[in-house]
Design a protein that fits this description.
The protein is 41% helix and 19% strand. By secondary structure, the protein is α/β, with parallel strands linked by helices. The protein has two domains: 65 residues, Orthogonal Bundle (Chemotaxis Receptor Methyltransferase Cher, domain 1), CATH 1.10.155; 189 residues, 3-Layer(aba) Sandwich (Rossmann fold), CATH 3.40.50.150. The chain has a seven-stranded mixed sheet. α2 crosses α4. 37% of the residues are buried. The chain binds S-adenosylmethionine. The site of S-adenosylmethionine (SAM) has 24 residues, from loops.
Amino acid sequence: MTPEDFTFVARLLKDQTGLVLTRDKAYLVENRLQSVVREHRLADLTELLAEVRGGNPAATTDLIDAMMSKDTGFFRDWKPFKHLAEVVLPNLRRARLAKRTFRILCAGCASGQEAYSVAMQIVEEAQHFTGWQVEIVGIDLSAAAIDAAGRGAYNQFEVQRGLPIRRLLRHFTKVGSGWTINENLRRMVSFRVWNLLEDMFPLGRFDVVLCRNVLIAFDQQTKIATLQKLARLLTDDGVLYVGVNESVTGVSGAFRVIASTLGIYAAQHEGVPPSHSMAAHL
Ligand SMILES: C[S@@+](CC[C@H](N)C(=O)[O-])C[C@H]1O[C@@H](n2cnc3c(N)ncnc32)[C@H](O)[C@@H]1O
């Protein structure tokens, strides 16, 4: 791959997705794009990049898709989910008692495991949420990932990543050699292709936003802009979860730390007094 080709791909990704590629990732670009070369029946990377430079939309989408890391799993890093179940959901139950409704956004949801993990926790507390309207929205730039998320069908390897057997048996149905999420969970979750670089206001407001292991790939400027947008989506007492290896401190003043080692932050809107701590001994 020539330095010009690398610069072209890196700029395309940065402009369209926020993803930052450093030069030491040239091998990764070459490796990941081989499948796109084959899929489009092209001779090599040079031909693929010529298609993209020429404005071929399918080649461009597939190139971008191939470069995004969509690594995920059920109950990934489990402690933030414990916090959600033990602290945030009970808080919402108290705070939204009059309206009996709340919304959760999984931004950068990949193939849906994170959104379904949240749905499982709510279903497991069903006795407290009878008559409630709970909506979970998963968004991702990748149409292929959103497609997979909507199907809710996972192979043995995928369900083995983070899903205890009792949850697998309770919330999934065995179909062939794989497992499909049960209809009651699927009904709680909707998935949409959405780019975090775009305006997110049309999605409405959310009481909880999970944007985990997404910002880590962005440059500082894109991180700041994205966090600003996420802050505006959150209700006054809303909670943001980023990845356990990500931090909002020093990047955005729109949040207050709840548990930095777990990537948990409270929305801090101007003129709104902080709600109670939500810190927990985890
Ligand atoms: C590493 S996965 C994380 C999945 C999940 N949140 C988790 O922590 O397990 C990152 C996801 O973010 C998505 N993503 C990256 N940039 C995005 C953007 N600009 N807009 C929407 N989704 C994006 C990728 O397509 C990918 O599915």
